[in-house]
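Subject: Sanity check before I submit

Could someone independently write out the structure tokens for this chain? I want to compare against mine line by line before I put it in a report. The sequence has 86 residues.
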Amino acid sequence: MASIEEVRAGIDAAKDKASESLGALQQAQSSLEAAQAQLQQVTEGSGQADVSEANAMLAQAVTSVTEVQQNVQAAIQASESVAARL
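---
Independent answer below. Compare away.
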């Protein structure tokens, strides 16, 4: 069985990896928002259903990334709570 120090170190390492992912997720969200804005701009006035569908899918992707970011942040906070109780 791992010592308390080893468990804390493992939790810290996991938190570090999770924090790294937040940066990547933020970058992905920014890129998706830019793609959506560009698509909306260049297809403005188009009546094609595919255009609306593509815009909606990009909007959903942005929402999904936001939800993932929130889940990662909640996991970091939960792991901090566990480490604090050790």
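---
OP: Matches mine. For the report I'm noting this point. The mean pLDDT is 93.
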